[in-house]
Amino acid sequence: MQKSSFYIEIEKNRENKDLNKIITKSAYDEILKTGEEKNKVFVSLCGDLEALNLLNKTNLKSVIIGFKKATTKEKEETFLNLLYQAEKLRKEIIIVGRELRDESFESLKALEETVSTQSLNEKESVLSAINEALVDTTISADIIKEVSQNVFVSIIESAEDVEEVAYEFSKNLAYKSIIEEDFKQARVLDISKTILSEALNVADASQIYTKELIYGVVNGVNDGIVKSVEKFKDEFKFAPDEIASQFALIENELKNLDEEFVLILKNLAQTCEGSAKTILNELLKKEYDSYTAKMKKLTSETISQLGEKISDMELSSKFDEIKKEIVSKGAKFIDDFELNQKFENIKKELEETKIFSKFRNKDAKEISNRAFTASKDRVSDSKEECSDSNKE
Fold this sequence. Notes:
Blueprint: H1 5-12, H2 19-34, H3 38-51, H4 57-71, H5 73-116, H6 123-138, H7 144-158, H8 162-178, H9 185-206, H10 210-236, H11 241-244, H12 247-254, H13 257-271, H14 274-285, H15 289-312, H16 317-332, H17 339-352, H18 364-391
């Protein structure tokens, strides 16, 4: 009886330390090439292992991995292609979004130049409003570090409304940067840490208005996160059922967000020096739970709202198909000996073609000055509103 190519390959490599990988690969190749009924081929492979005195549970698992991969080959290729196309589309969306932001910036700047040459009774108010719009357009995660340091230095040097302006700037910077992309806890915390670290560095170096700057920035970043969660919560009300169904993934991004934020503060308190360290520890000792209570309440409400949406959802036949497909794909991934490499190749291709916003190349000092001015103006407007309200 003629020996199968599987038998020959395994016999040749029976002492190889990577025998299990070879069994998997050989089983996969044998099932694909024979064209016979796959279950019969599987039984035949088991017979080959038995003939070689290699039939045991470990080796059988390797055959099963090859069997699963061979039986789902077409679906896997379709899935990977869809994944690639989805990532490609996401990249294109980011590019168009950034081009839109660039165009918006240029339009607003041209408008600012035009207004500057006009004789208007409220010209300063108009220019202030345009500047705030420009800042909202340019602020992004790409330039957090560069802009934060410059603005915090300007706030200290101005010596006016330090805590209020630091709060306004940090809240706006955190919020705008977070909502730029999908809400991901790791990204939210990374943005927060960058802003807080720059504030602590400036506070420690300046040795003046340290408390005001730190309190303003910590509370500002906290409220920026809260504002972004509020936006996420509002948008989620109208999310398609397919998105809402990813309950565990979305819940994971919100769960313990307040605790993770406090942990960042504690870690920064351990690493920073001088008066900044003292003040941050002082803030933490004053039960920072009261500061993050709103964040905790909001994330809990959002998770609860998500659960209710899942409970009330009437799953259509199409959604059932999607759910089954997700389950089948999940099962198929187990022990897949080549899938990780395929994903790595996709990620590598995306990394090689990664697009950076041209805002990163803009004059960071100009953006910093604009952001500082906009933050001061917001504080000033807020004071005027309070004053008018008291008069009434």
